Amino acid sequence: MRVLELWRYPVKSLQGERVDESEIGPRGLAGDRAYALFDVVTGLGLTARRAPEMLFAAARLLPDGDVEITLPDGSVAADDAALSSWLGRPVRLLSTSEVVQRRYENPSDTETEAPGSWGPFEGSAGAFHDSGSAAVTVLSTASADGEPTRRFRANVVVDDGGEDAFVGSDVRVGAAVLAVGMPIARCVMVTRAQPGGIGTDREVLRRIHRERGGNLAVGGVVTASGPVRVGDEVSAG
User: 3-236: which CATH topology?
Assistant: First the structure.
């Protein structure tokens, strides 16, 4: 099994960057989920679960560690006011060093997303991941089963199936090592439309529940830092 693609998402729920190589450290790929948008009124982290239009903006990491956000109209957001105007609500772009409490929302009713089904959950204390047990996520093209892998926003896309068997193992990804401890439970995020012809499709989530028990991809914590490059081997043991 080898690395086919590497992805980092500098701002949670925005489009990210495909890179040829990256350092993997305790928080995952360098710069991944280093920033998030927070709703000023509710204090909750804002994601494409609640605001699907977020997936049509893109973020890139700048050399100094700051982030640049390109809005769907092609303009670069100059400040929080521009982001708030785009999203139609007051928001702030914050880094991991600026936020202690990381709470987001998810609907329990994934078919209708009824207002009463939305509830908060606690995110990672490190980078803005949904879970502290999944600093790096790994997905195979085989498991994606014909869907664009970008729909599932994994960090490491591999060229062969079998990543489910990594759960409970130490896995070497390039020069880094992950303790893979969990399958990734999927939510309404995977049904959302994205640029490049990825349409809204609720059947994607239905199929994951029907055929895979609701899980797709695996996640782990980093036990040994190191670089990873496209083409590197991914192996357990």
Answer: M1 Pyruvate Kinase; Domain 3 (2.40.33)
Q: What is the token pair recorded at 87?
A: 């999203």
Cα angle for residues 160, 20, 34 (degrees, 5° grid): 100
Assign 135 to helix, strand or coil: coil
Give per-residue pLDDT as tens, 154-211.
999 999 899 999 999 999 999 999 999 999 999 999 999 999 999 999 999 999 999 9
Helix (H) / strand (E) element for 171: namely strand 169-173
- Give the position of tokens 């987001």: 104
Backbone angles phi, psi at 91, to 5 degrees: -135, 160
Contacts of 213 (CB under 8 A, 6+ apart): none
**Angstrom distance (rounded) from CA 178 to CA 135:** 9
**Tokens, residue 9:** 């998402």
**Phi, psi torsion values for 69, nearest 5 degrees:** -115, 125
| Token pair belonging to 212 | 């895979």
Other Cβ atoms less than 10 A from the Cβ of 228: the count is 24
List the end-to-end C-alpha distance of the chain, in Å, as a whole number: 13
> Residue 100: pLDDT above 90?
no
Residue 44 contacts by C-beta under 8 Å, 6 or more apart in sequence? Answer: 38, 103, 104, 105, 120
Whole-angstrom Cα distance, residue 187 to residue 105? Answer: 11
Whether 214 contacts 186, CB under 8 Å: yes
* Residue range 110-149, pLDDT digits in tens: 999 999 999 999 999 999 999 999 999 999 999 999 999 9
pTM over 0.90: yes
